[in-house]
Amino acid sequence: MTVPDPLFSPALTEASPQSDLTRSVYCVLGMPIDAINMPAIVKRIEAAAASRAVFLVSTPNLNFLVSSLSDPEFRESLLNSDLCPPDGAPIVWIARLLGLPIKERAAGSDLFDRLQARNTGMRRLTVFLFGGARGVAEAAAKTLNAQPGGLNCVGTMDPGFCEVSEMSQDHIIDIVNSSGADFLVLSLGAKKGQLWLQRNHHRLTIPVRAHLGAAINFQAGIVKRAPPMVRAWGLEWLWRIKEEHYLWKRYRDDGFVLLRLLLTRILPLAVITRWHQFRPKHRLQDLLIKKSNDPQSIMISLCGVASERHIPQATSCFREALAGKQNIIIDLSNTRLIDARFFGLLLMLRKELRSRGAKLIFTGASRPIERMFRLHELGFLLSADLSL
Description:
Strand content: 15-25%
Number of strands: 12
Low-confidence stretches: 1-17
Structural class: alpha/beta
Distance between the termini: 24 Å
C-alpha cells in the first residue's frame, strides 16, 4: 500500500504543547538539541498526555547524527520533533567542546525508567509497545504491569522484519490507535523507527510518541543494561557490544564518522567560537534586526552578530512575523556571525513556518557566513527551502 508522505504536512506540529520558539535549542552539527533536564522532559510528556496534544520526542545519539548527515528524510524527523534531548554521550562531548550548556545525557532508556518510577499517587500513563524481536514487547509488558509504577502497558505489537511501508498498513495503524494509549514507544532500529513515526505522524492518534531503542529490551530483561558507573564514564557503547556483539560494526563505522567530524567540523567550530569570544568588538557588538514586508513575504535583516544574548529580541521579532503566515526571508548581507544557539532558533522558526505551509529563505550570505552554515551542517538551509 502507498502511504502519504507527511514530511511537510501542516498537521505535524500544530498541536505542540508550547511554541517551538520558546525551546532552548542548540544546533549540534545540524541536529536541534534541547538543553533540558530529565524532570523537565517528564513534565512535558505528562502535560502532552493530559491534553492529548501531539508530542514527538526524538533522542539523538551518535548513530542519529551519522544518519542525519546522509539521509534528508531522517534529518527532517529530528527537525520536526517537539523535543530532542541528547541520548548519546558523544553528543554531550561535542556540545562541551563547542561551549554549549548541554551537560548531561537524557537517554531514552532512562526516560522510560523515570516515567515508570513516577509517584504511584499520580495517574499512570498508558503505553503501547511497538517493535522489538518476537515476544520481547509482550515480555516487557508483563514485567511492566506486574509492578506498581507510573506506566501501564495497554497493548503491544511485533510487526515483524519488514519495510516501513509494510508496517504502515491501515490495519496496523488501527490496532495502535485503538489502544487509546498516552505514549507510543517504538523499538525498530533508529532509522526505521524515526521514519515510521515521520511517515505516519498524521495518522496516529496516540499523543506522545518516541523511538526509545533498547528500552523495551532492557524492560523485558533480554539485554542487561550497563552499570551506572559505566554509563557515567560514557562507555555504555562498550557494554552494548559485550551484550549484543553484532553492534560492533555500527559503533566502528559511527566512530570513524565522529573522527572525521572532529577534524573537519567540531574543532574548527570550537576555534571560531573561542576566537570571537575573546574579541571585544564582537563580544560587545549588538544585533540590529530590521523587518519589512510585502504581500508575498516578510524580509528580516540581521545586522551584526546573531548570538545567544540576542535570542529574546529575535524571538519577539519572529513571533510578529509568524502572525502574518507568509514566507520569511532572512537577509544575511550584514550578518557577521551566527552561533549555535541562534542557529537553533532559526531551525525552530523553520519548523513553525513549515507547519503553516510557508517557507524560510536565506539570502545575501557572505562566504564566511556560508562557511558557518556548512560547519554547522546546515548548508541545506541555503538552498532556499523550495521543497515544500
